[in-house]
Design a protein that fits this description.
Elements (H helix, E strand, L loop, with lengths): L6 H4 L20 H4 L44 E10 L2 E15 L5 E12 L10 E5 L8 H8 L2 E3 L14 E3 L9 E5 L8 E2 L11 H18 L7 E7 H15 L6 E7 L12 H16 L9 H21 L6 H15 L3 H6 L6 H7 L7 E2 L7 E2 L13 H4 L2 H15 L15 H4 L19 H10 L4 E7 L7 H9 L11 E6 L9 H20 L2
Parallel strand pairs: 4-7, 4-9, 9-10, 10-13, 13-14
Antiparallel strand pairs: 1-2, 2-3, 3-7, 3-8, 5-6, 11-12
Length: 546
């Protein structure tokens, strides 16, 4: 595997978020965090999706306003197209934006779901080669795709004040000079039960709310789009963020099994193996330590090293060596080793030796977020640890909310509506769910990886991605990581990808990149520019690979 130096991107300046479910057995997020763009138990049950059929020019008093909670989704597919242009890398790109729905059907042909999508397809002159097509989505589980859509690679994006809380509306929407549209056509997909995607007929949402169920739904949706738009011979990529990376790793294999070979898989802020997060094991304390160290340096709780890249490698080495050995001893650790380990851990994390001994050298993420800046009565973000928040109880042991979530959520929801309704001329009788009600807590975590006789209780789709790469030796994978991402720490991603059991001849197909940002790397506009440059190069290599 190639791990390029990220020293250059560290100098970019600093800025971050996306949903990531808590796995079975892990600590639960605070109530305030859970009620944002993850699952919200207080919201009414989701309805189904339909396109508004009223005249947008009519006065409100002259028409009947449909009830978003009783609207039903038609089994037939809908689409609405409009024409636009965007300038990327100094080149004006005319494109067609299509907002529509894909009807998913079971093996007997029965309609089971309406999957909402927004596609951007650049004009292609006659005789030009097939353009790549990329399918993009967020995670959750149960999150809609508005964050990668309106923040990352869509032709229009929303500006935020990150790493500070974004101002109140009106928000600024602007053409995105770092859109990926110059390299690929883009299709943003919403998971069933999120956004405007809904189950159909008597099919229940739970039919789609699980690791394998979700992979199957996205495989059917992608196949349907490819068939409808005659794109079977186009180069194909998938791009997932957060839990969307868990999906992508399994989806790459599932599509391949159905005869659809991919050119590339891009995973942003990844978690592929939820098993390592099970309670009672020490693995997560090891993989979080480099992220704690980067955060301590950022907040001046640890000395600033002359070379952050080399420093974080030093932390990785200590975490996977002496620290892991100390944790493995449990209560059998000697007083001398306990003291030495606590002192070294204190130097890396900025936490006191006394605190580290009292927590038995095991620093839970929630406690770290509360403890690091306790002397300033501030907490730090989960999705992006550069954000700071203020709790009502400064003496508590965990943060009351995630400032890196609340600081940007409203801007993204408003921007998505503004773009769909005013730019693309699409409105719906539905509620648009940024995170589908009850999906997260209803999620079925069982997963049957390739070659297994039975399903495991917790998903590890790194096995699927490894199998896909062995069967398709041309498949390339790009892992994109934020240094200050506390939801999916970069050292954990490295661990997952290193355990795909790849032959040495295939390891060069896996690339890594690192940015001075959080879970949503693209909130830092300088980091976004660097990320786009890296991804553009990756596309060129993946398409040319034979």
């Amino acid at each position: 595997m190639i791990r390029p130096s990220f020293a250059a991107v560290i100098a970019l300046g600093l800025s971050a978020t996306a949903s990531l479910a808590q796995p079975p057995g892990s600590a639960k997020p605070s109530a305030a965090a859970s009620a944002s763009r993850r699952d919200n138990p207080d919201e009414p049950a989701a309805a189904s999706a339909v396109e508004r059929r009223t005249d947008r020019g009519q006065a409100a008093g002259e028409r009947k306003i449909p009830d978003a909670d009783v609207a039903t989704a038609p089994a037939h597919e809908t689409e609405k197209a409009s024409h636009h242009s965007v300038t990327v890398a100094g080149r004006t790109i005319p494109y067609t934006a299509t907002v529509g729905t894909l009807t998913l059907r079971d093996d007997d042909g029965k309609p089971t779901a309406s999957m909402f999508y927004v596609a951007y397809v650049a004009e292609r002159a006659k005789g030009e080669p097939e353009r790549p097509v990329t399918f993009l989505y967020n995670g959750g589980p149960g999150s809609a795709s508005l964050f990668v859509h309106m923040g990352l690679f869509g032709p229009v994006h929303v500006m935020t004040d990150s790493p500070n809380a974004t101002h109140a509306p009106p928000y600024t929407l602007a053409d995105n000079p770092n859109s990926l549209l110059d390299k690929s056509d883009l299709v943003f997909l919403d998971a069933i039960g999120a956004g405007y995607s809904r189950p159909l007929g008597d099919t229940k949402g739970t039919a789609f709310w699980g690791v394998d169920q979700d992979i199957d739904a996205f495989a059917r949706g992608i196949q349907r789009y490819i068939t409808l738009n005659h794109r079977w011979n186009s180069p194909k990529f998938i791009f997932g963020e957060s839990y969307g990376t868990t999906r992508s790793a399994g989806l790459a294999y599932a599509l391949q099994e159905r005869g659809m070979q991919l050119n590339g898989v891009l995973i942003l802020s990844s978690i592929l193996n939820y098993g390592v997060r099970d309670a009672g094991f020490d693995h997560m304390y090891v993989t979080y330590l480099p992220s704690y160290a980067a955060t301590a340096v950022y907040h001046h709780k640890a000395p600033t090293p002359p070379d952050l890249t080399a420093y974080l490698q030093e932390v990785r080495d200590w975490a996977s060596g002496p620290y892991q050995v100390a944790l493995a001893k449990g209560s059998n650790i000697s007083e001398a080793e306990l003291d030495a380990t606590a002192r070294k851990l204190s130097a890396y994390t900025g936490l006191s030796v006394d605190f580290l001994k009292r927590v038995n050298l095991r620093v839970d993420l929630q406690r770290f977020r509360k403890e690091l800046l306790r002397d300033q009565r501030r907490t730090i973000g989960r999705y992006d640890s550069r954000f700071t928040g203020i709790d009502s109880d400064a003496a508590g042991d965990s943060a009351e909310y995630d400032p890196s979530d609340t600081g940007i959520h409203g801007a993204y929801v408003a921007a998505l509506h503004e773009h769909l309704e005013k730019d693309l001329g699409y409105s719906s009788d539905l509620n648009y769910w940024p995170s589908g009600p009850n999906i997260n807590r209803a999620w079925d975590w069982k997963h049957k990886p390739p070659g297994a006789s039975f399903a495991a209780q917790v998903a590890d789709t790194a096995q699927d991605l490894g199998a896909a790469m062995r069967q398709n030796p041309h498949l390339m994978v790009y892992s994109l990581n934020g240094l200050y991402d506390m939801a999916t720490p970069f050292f954990g991603t490295e661990y997952d990808l290193a355990h795909m059991q790849l032959d040495p001849t295939l390891r060069g197909n896996v690339r890594f990149a690192y940015y001075p940002s959080g879970h949503m790397v693209y909130l830092n506009q300088d980091a976004l520019k660097s990320l786009k440059t890296d991804v553009a190069r990756f596309y060129d290599e993946a398409v040319a690979k034979r």
